[in-house]
Amino acid sequence: MSNEAQSDLEKKILEQFMSGKNLFGEGGALAPMLKNVIEKALEAEMDAHLDDQERTKGNKRNGKGKKTLKSRFGSFDIDTPEDRQSSFEPALVKKRQTILADQLSDKIIGLYGLGMSYRDISAHIKEMYDTDISHTVLSQITDRIIPEVKAWQNRPLEPMYCIVWLDAMHYKVKVDGRIEHKALYNILGVNKEGYKEVLGMYISESEGANFWLQVLTDLQQRGLEDILIACTDNLKGFTEAILSVFPKTQVQKCIVHQIRNSLKYIASKDQKEFLKDLKRVYRATNKQVAEDELLNLEEKWGQKYPVVIASWQRNWEELSQYFEYTEPIRKIIYTTNAVEGFHRQVRKVTKTKGAFTNDMALLKLVYLATKNIEKKWTSPLQNWSLTIQQLYIKFGNRIPLDLAASPSGGTPRRGEQSDRV
Questions:
Q1: Displacement of CA 79 from its chain's centroid (Å)
Q2: Is residue 242 a contact partner of residue 249, using CB atoms and an 8 Å limit?
Q3: 83 falls in which pLDDT band (50, 70, 90)?
Q4: pLDDT tens across 287-330, in order?
Q5: What is the mean pLDDT of the chain?
Q6: Per-residue pLDDT tens for 243-273?
Q7: Which pairs from 101-108 meet CB under 8 Å and 24+ separation?
Q8: Cβ-contact 387, 331 below 8 angstroms
Q9: What kind and span of H or E run contains 232?
Q10: Residue 383's pLDDT band (boundaries 50, 70, 90)?
Q11: DSSP E strands, 7-90
């Protein structure tokens, strides 16, 4: 390069650098240099590929093809060497590879996991890296995590979880060209150290004993042997299914859901007074007092609202399990607030989506959201050291003896702040 040409190049580099233009993108001063380095590297790979053994097979060079590469430095075209038998597999820029830098793919997956649409991601990448990426390419990039999602769904679980919450989120999913409503059931557990963990997520069009039997069998096959307390909404067929797989599990139905469902059938003029009377039931000091208040509730409201009273009586055993515990544990298990709180965080990510193209598209996004949420679960539940001792008194040897002697929870394992339910 002549001194004049070098001076012009240096001037162009300085001008583009000062103006903030991408030096490696289209029109960038250093783009020809990057293109030249990549093409020389590919030529060297082709020379190594066409060794004596390949040439005895009749293989040789067969011209060049063209490819547009997208990277965090911008987009640029390169010439790619080709061989007659199409057996050349370059390592630097693989066949059908259009994204040069894995850093860009990681950024795309990260943005997708935060709930950004393909359109917004494409605009962001264009603005930051001067690179155009189609929705098809973006979908292909996010599909890279599918094996990771499947591996996570089938990962081994701990043998015992102290408390497990189950609840559903509802989404629209395209099936054979039409929109269907599907439920995504998430299972949130607390292990013996008091840390929260999403045990699994399952998509179903309808719930029932058969569906829950499949879910619980899957958990069992992944190593789960025992659940102390399962907290659920009034899930159809769940109690029958869980007792067939984990017969010692104590089922506590969500009081909050029961109250909400009850108020749907109470006239608005009666709701305030009815709720005042109902509070005496679920906020009673013990189960005996609660049952006396339930009888009072029936006597006062039974004739006017027999369906509501019958629902409380029919589900009473599973609604009243929390009375066996002290107030701190009652607050943890008498409602599904823990999993509902998790769902609120997931919805912040999924709210921008109308209908998902398929089940896996839904699972991909919820999985990425879950991994981001779990990063914040760095400490055991508040006062877990006291909670686990009370659970040991109740469940005995179903909790490892060493845990009873030295319960964890006093010192956070992965953080400094306790994580409230």
A1: 41
A2: yes
A3: confident
A4: 999 999 999 999 999 999 999 999 999 999 999 999 999 888 89
A5: 80
A6: 899 999 999 999 988 999 999 999 999 999 9
A7: 101/71, 101/72, 101/73, 103/72, 104/70, 104/71, 104/72, 104/129, 104/131, 105/141, 105/144, 107/72, 108/133, 108/138, 108/141, 108/142
A8: no
A9: strand 226-232
A10: confident
A11: 61-71, 74-83
7's tokens: 């001076």
What number of other Cβ atoms are within 10 A of residue 396's Cβ?
10
Residue 156 has phi, psi (to 5 degrees) of -65, 145
Instruction: Write the single-letter amino acid at 127.
Output: E
Interatomic CA distance for residues 201 and 191, integer angstroms = 17
pLDDT of 88 strictly over 90: no
For the chain, what's the residue count?
421
Give the start-to-end residue ranges of the domains of the chain: 1-91, 101-154, 157-252+350-421, 255-335
In terms of Cβ atoms closer than 10 Å to its own Cβ (0-12, 13-18, 19+), residue 270 is middle
Residue 227's Cβ-count burial label (10 Å; 0-12, 13-18, 19+) is buried
CATH class of 157-252+350-421: alpha beta
Q: How far apart are CA 244 and CA 227, in angstroms?
A: 13
Taking residues 393-404, report their average pLDDT. Answer: 74
Residue 212: exposed, middle, or buried by beta-carbon count in 10 A (0-12, 13-18, 19+)? buried
Confidence class of residue 415 from pLDDT cuts 50, 70 and 90?
A: very low
Q: Is the pTM of this model over 0.90?
A: no
The 3-class secondary structure across 243-270, one letter per residue, is: HHHCCCCEEEECHHHHHHHHHCCCCHHH
Three-state secondary-structure class, residue 139: helix
* Eight-class DSSP state of 288: H
Asked if 229 and 254 touch (Cβ cutoff 8 Å), the reply is no
Q: With CA atoms as reference, report the closest residue to 81 among 45, 55, 52, 51.
A: 45
Write the single-letter amino acid at 281: V
Helix then strand then coil, in percent of the chain rounded to 5, is 50, 20, 30
